[in-house]
Write a structure and sequence with these properties.
The structure is a single chain. The chain is built from 15 helices and 16 strands. The protein is an alpha+beta fold. It has two domains: 283 residues, no CATH class; 59 residues, Arc Repressor Mutant, subunit A. The strands form four sheets. The chain has a nine-stranded mixed sheet with strand order 2-6-7-10-1-11-12-13-14. It starts with a strand and ends with a helix. The chain binds zinc ion.
Length: 474
């Protein structure tokens, strides 16, 4: 590619505290509009904000997990602008002294690790929500004052796929910390992108545009992809890229201009006079550091070492903390890590994906899951049948034993019972028998297949092959 994209992402994440960032109002989602408001979050005169300690600790946690330098001294600032969803006409944010700076996050690119710089992590309050109806607009202030974390990457991202991988990795880390669900479809995580293109080898950056309105990780990747092609085409035609904000239209698969932005907007930031500066001293830093869980990439390495798993399996199993914990719990019950990994990465994750559910939402305890695997490993039930049993277990909440008994689907390994079916198959497939005896070794697999079909997958295929072979060779 002759042109190199230069991309920086700005991510906003709602923190899942039970109360707002500067008042005691509930943050519960889906309540009656304007039922979770008070003088503070409505910006009425004469009331003072008080910082939510938990939101602050959550923010520091994320900054630490992203390898940021934690500010010993940090403060809040007013970002002044007028908008109907912002009752104070300013947003309390952080300007020149954010709580975290100069971190990084690693993504994997074709087997290599690429480090993406994190420029800053800061805390701010969310605005309200406008709802446009036919001839008027309504405003709901329930969201006003919900704690938001802003995470700004350095322009180290060079392709839409890298942007996608960065978001996946960021989401995994924040979910591991338990401070947000990072659900982009629900607006818990929002992402804007700055993008420009330059000729390969040029040191000077091109003019950038800002992309907004993407509401899925895939949407971010598609919007960037479109925007790169649009900018390259302009440059190829000797036209110039205009610095502007563009919105992504997911239906039409294109970006369109929202407003031109010749100069950076001047928000007239100044220190928030109603909040004191905050000190994050060494002791507080130590305390928060101690509370950090093992993070996905460290866990992945440990899984490879401790359980001798492939990189692929270790990566899948640690993609979500719940899945990783489930796996480790199962290993304690049944110390055959590779067998478990195989089952989890294959059948179990497939069930989760097809149902679009999280592991915790499934009707499946590790004990029951391990029981099923044990039965399959011991040959009590064939692997094919066991997959169906797993599906039934999830649907009904019953144990593997109950389902196998009720459906009468134990694996048949008893030679006498198998011989009966095998004799019928031999009689019905004279041509394949002749082929096999004539030297076509493969023909026997066809016969095994027929036995499996006749037994509704209950026959033990290993035993079938053995008996068939000895019978035909006679
Ligand atoms: Zn309030």
């Amino acid at each position: 590619m002759e042109y190199q994209p230069v991309i920086g992402l700005e991510v906003h994440v709602q923190l899942n505290t039970s109360t707002k960032i500067f008042c005691g109002c509930s943050t519960e989602f889906g309540s009656q509009p304007n039922s979770q408001v008070c003088p503070v979050c409505l910006g009425l005169p004469g009331c003072l904000p008080v910082l939510n300690k938990k939101a602050f600790a959550y923010a520091v946690k994320v900054a630490m997990a992203l390898n940021c330098r934690i500010a010993e001294y940090t403060k809040f600032d007013r970002k002044n602008y007028f908008y109907p969803d912002l009752p104070k006409n300013y947003q309390i944010s952080q300007y020149d002294l954010p709580l975290g700076e100069d971190g990084f996050l690693n993504i994997r690119q074709n087997g290599n690790i690429k480090r993406i710089g994190i420029r800053r992590v800061h805390l701010e309050e969310d605005a309200g929500k406008l709802i446009h109806v036919s001839d008027s607009s309504l405003v709901d202030f329930n969201r006003t004052g919900i704690p938001l974390l802003e995470i700004v990457s350095c322009p180290d991202i060079n392709s839409p796929q890298e942007a996608y991988d960065y978001l996946i990795s960021l989401k995994q880390i924040i979910r591991y910390l338990g401070v947000s669900s990072c659900d982009m479809e629900k607006g818990i995580l929002r992402c804007d992108a700055n993008i420009s293109v330059k000729r390969q080898g040029d040191s000077e950056l091109g003019t950038k545009t800002e992309l907004k309105n993407m509401n899925s990780f895939r949407g971010v990747r598609e919007a960037l992809d479109f925007e790169i092609r649009r900018q390259v085409k302009l440059l190829e035609n000797k036209q110039r890229v205009i610095q502007e904000t563009r919105l992504w239209d997911a239906q039409k698969h294109m970006t369109y201009s929202m407003r031109t932005k010749e100069e950076a907007q001047d928000y007239r930031y100044f220190p928030e006079p109603d909040l004191p500066p905050f000190i994050i001293d060494a002791e507080m830093q130590r305390e928060i550091k101690k509370s950090l869980p093992e993070l996905p990439q460290a866990k992945e390495l440990r899984f490879i070492q401790d359980y001798q798993l492939s990189e692929y399996y270790a990566h899948l199993l640690t993609s979500d903390r719940e899945i990783a914990d489930f796996f480790e719990y199962c290993v304690k019950l049944y110390p055959q890590a590779k067998v478990l990994a195989n089952w989890m990465c294959g059948s179990l994750l497939a069930e989760l994906n097809s149902r679009n559910l999280a592991l915790g939402e499934l009707n499946l305890s590790p004990e029951n899951f391990v029981d099923l695997i044990r039965l399959a490993q011991e040959g009590k039930v064939s692997n094919v049948v066991a997959k169906g049993v797993l599906r039934d277990m999830i649907d009904t909440g019953q144990t593997a034993g109950e389902i196998i008994q009720k459906k009468n689907i134990s694996q048949i390994s008893d030679p006498d019972a198998l011989k009966e079916i095998i004799d019928i198959v031999i009689k019905e497939n004279e041509k394949s028998v002749r082929d096999y005896l004539g030297g076509r070794e493969n023909a026997i697999m066809f016969l095994v297949g027929q036995v499996m079909r006749k037994s509704k997958s209950k026959a033990n295929p290993k035993a079938v092959l053995e008996i068939l072979r000895s019978r035909l060779n006679k």
